[in-house]
Write a structure and sequence with these properties.
345 residues, alpha/beta, TIM Barrel, twelve-stranded mixed beta sheet, 12 strands, 16% strand, globular, binds iron/sulfur cluster
Length: 345
């Protein structure tokens, strides 16, 4: 049964004529990893206070907002975190979102550590596909990049199980950091190719304020394509829709595809159709936003669907975000930026 909001649909465009097509919903700020480029352990230690339960949107609140976003043009919903599989009963939320009228694509991004035991329930609830973060097959590199010294085995089991139950296509997000994992990329690319997983190699970004980002640690996407293409020849593939993030390539031998996400060297803000919802109900119009627009307050104060739709539409209409396009020309970057684990990439 499809569910829709009571308010009539309306297409809203921002200041650069970009529609809202993709909604990324961060369902928790908690994570069981401490990836240094996102949630460094020295800052987010054992005593770090995550958001208290009452401040986090309930599943019903998330589903209601998602229905309203769908009336404004959202066609794709991605669940993220922190680590979304840490949120108890997340499959119940999936079931609520799966029935929303207009939503054609329901995906989830996870670090994969808990995926093996939850894949079946997520699939049955209506999840269509998963993206799993795995930055290498080398356990030492994996342990360094998850900040917990966990090896890859549980994540690999989760990926395999996701494919088994039909959460397809399985995409693998690989953050590439020069001096950390570039020497293991070809092995990972071959592993994904042989199993039909779609690897997405992501340029290291200055998300948040704590990851000590430096340009010299960015391995340009073009270099990654050259490196992988040396042994496994590639050819470019057209994008499926406006706003698709990855530059896609297919293996010339018919062995599937891979992609790169080049936010630093080939920014794509001009086609950015992504809105983000933080766990505490803030609407963020850019990954590099300094802060968001509070939707929880009006939601809990009894605002109607119509009123909420207007609030969201008004925020989007004045959106001018294009941080990645401006990054290199900025003399000074905004000191305050929402941390990555709060908005899930
Ligand atoms: S930097 Fe902001 S505006 Fe540009 S693509 Fe990323 S999220 Fe979109």
């Amino acid at each position: 049964m499809t569910m829709s909001s009571s308010v009539p649909g309306e297409v809203v465009l921002d200041r650069f004529q970009r529609p809202i097509r993709d909604l990324r919903i961060s369902v928790t700020d908690r994570c069981n990893f401490r990836c240094p480029f996102c949630m460094p352990a020295e800052v987010y230690g054992e005593r770090y206070q995550f958001l208290p339960k009452q401040e986090i949107l309930t599943f019903e609140e998330i589903a209601r907002l998602a229905r309203i976003f769908a009336t404004l043009g959202v066609r794709k919903i991605r669940l993220t975190g922190g680590e979304p599989l840490l949120r108890n009963g997340v499959e119940k939320l999936v079931a609520m979102l799966a029935g929303i009228e207009g939503v054609e694509d329901l995906a989830l991004t996870t670090n994969g550590h808990l995926l093996a035991q939850q894949a079946q329930a997520l699939k049955e609830a209506g999840l269509q596909r998963v993206t799993v973060s795995l930055h290498s097959l080398d356990d030492d590199v994996v342990g360094q990049m998850n900040g917990r010294n966990f090896g890859a085995s549980l994540v690999l089991k989760g990926i395999e199980r996701a494919a088994e139950v039909g959460l397809l296509p399985v995409k693998i997000n690989v953050v590439v950091i020069r001096g950390v994992n570039e020497h293991t990329l070809v092995e990972l690319a071959r592993f994904c190719k042989e199993r039909g997983y779609i690897a997405r190699f992501i340029e290291y970004m200055d998300v948040g304020t704590l990851n000590g980002w430096r340009m010299e640690r960015v391995m340009p996407a073009a270099e990654v394509v050259r490196l992988i293409g040396e042994g496994m020849p590639l050819e470019p593939v057209e994008k499926d829709y406006r706003g698709e993030v990855a530059e896609r390539y297919r293996y010339r031998d018919g062995g599937g595809e891979m992609g790169v996400i080049a936010s630093v060297t080939q920014p794509f803000c001009g086609d950015c159709t992504r809105a983000r919802l933080s766990p505490e109900g803030k609407l963020l119009t850019c990954l590099f936003a300094s802060n968001g627009h509070d939707l929880r307050e009006p939601l809990r104060a009894g605002a109607s669907d119509q009123e909420l739709q207007s609030i969201i539409a008004d925020v989007w209409r004045v959106r001018e975000d294009r941080y990645s396009e401006l990054r290199t020309s900025m003399t000074e970057r905004p000191a305050q930026r929402v941390e990555m684990f709060r908005i899930g990439g």
